[in-house]
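Why does residue order matter? Because the sequence determines the fold. Keep that principle in mind as you read this record.
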Amino acid sequence: MPKKYVDLETLKYILYDIHKLEDLLSRERFQEHDLESLDLFIDSVKEFSDRELFPYFKEMDETPAYHKDGTVIVHKQVQKVMHQSGEMGIIAASFDYKDGGLQIPFTALQAAVYVMDAANNHLPGYPSLTQGAAELIVEFGNEILKETYVPNMLAGIWGGTMCLTEPQAGSSLSDIVTKATPTKEGYYKISGQKIFISGGDHQFAENIVHLVLARIEGAPKGTKGISLFVVPKNRLKEDGTLEYNDVMTVADFQKMGQRGYCTTHLGFGDSDDCRGWLVGEEHKGLAQMFLMMNGARIAVGRGAAAISMAAYRASLQYANERPQGRKLTSTGKKNPSEKQSLIIEHPDVRRMLLLQKSIVEGSLSLVFLASKYHDIVITATSKEEKEKYHLLLEMIIPIVKTYPSEAGAESVDNGLQVLGGYGFCADFSLQQYYRDIRISSLYEGTTGIQSQDLLGRKVPMQNGKALELLVSEITKTILAASKDDELKQYATILGDKLKQSQKVLSHLMPFAMKGNYERYLADANLFMEYMSIVVLGWLWLEMAVDAKKELTNTNRKYSEIFYESKIHTMKFYFKYEVPKTNSLVESLMNDETLTIKKDKEHII
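Structure:
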């Protein structure tokens, strides 16, 4: 096992110095917190992760969750992490005081859970999904639902899930057929199947509160006929005891990665005795669920960023310890009498390590950016401020979900390559990180769905205002970097990439205006990749601007080499990653309809 799974120094630098967490604390909602208390919160989660998560990372992969006698058997640490996440306030952290929460900034909470994700990505999903389900009840449920379920969920005593997917309805949620039949007692009888339900059941759960999308009899077809229900595994009787609610665990999916994080197939109402309670209004279920989806998509990006961080630390440790080969001499040959070099001395290994570092730290900055926008939206003091940051958040969400997932997988792949043959072996953790991160581009809307959301919904949003605001934010950093002799060339490059994106959109938009949306969105994935690289280039340039400033400060917080490494990594990103946009533009501007016009028989 590697010795280190997270770089806490870099995490705090990006959180405090780049994204200015302290600025959020001046807002009324967060005024009872200060940097010292939040720093202690993050440190306590790190100590908890060192003790209760990281040591079990490999073991949970080797002893995966499995279905037995109508339940799912999971690792014993699931129970401990759930309960302690409740006791430490991790689940309740961002909730209102009145709902039993701590009103900690969402951004600070993401930093803490990122540490947990990096330590052992098989465990944080259990409390995180419980938090998400409780948020839905608090936001849309009546007082009875809140009082009945939320306290035990925030305490980590009861779990929570979100049940959307069905065998015939994955990305196409309009095809949901799970049925809700009203009764004169006020509850609904639920019947149907849900699949791929993370944390759906386990032997330690006294109760699991499922948030289920279902269709009330007679509801309109499509997404407008979907409602949201609280459907507990065990319902509460009048005397306060629990009784079985006809929610059956049919199976647990055996997966490529994240094997300790159970993924279940649930059956509701097999004996016609599954009761559900409506959350909010009829037929508003999908809209309610998707109001919470921003947080879920940030969480997926955060988890992927954390896995790639842990993989990077493992490969960096190996590169600093593994002697192999010798450096070339000035003659172009190696001196066999010299001692072997550590592999970190070889340029190609350094390239792979720097690629990881650029993706890992850039992704972390992206996660904090989205989280900060979320915090500003919920604490905005004016309509103008709320609208601005809502639009910025909407623009960033598909990118924060996608880039850490896709580029993170590439990063872990390079980490595995650093280890050579050992990277392919079970004794080393890189192969596990490689398997674990693969799900990230599938969770909460695949990369294809996110790409269509970015180009199809977010770019045209309010006649392009969301994109305009993002360009404006990037331009501020470009202007700041332009004033520095060392950084101005990178500012020019980034500015050119922004102009190039406008040319691409000017080329694509006429297709949408003529109603040819299939052509407009055919290469949305390429546009996502382009915009992701631009946004990461922006975030790296922003770090370089700060690092340059701090290098002139005699009272700087971090070492000289720390700041120099940020500038060096920015330069690496601009040399090796930013130029990839050129080939993307070439493809985006090419009007050959190779994925549209031909019959499917051509794909043989």
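The chain has a mean pLDDT of 95.
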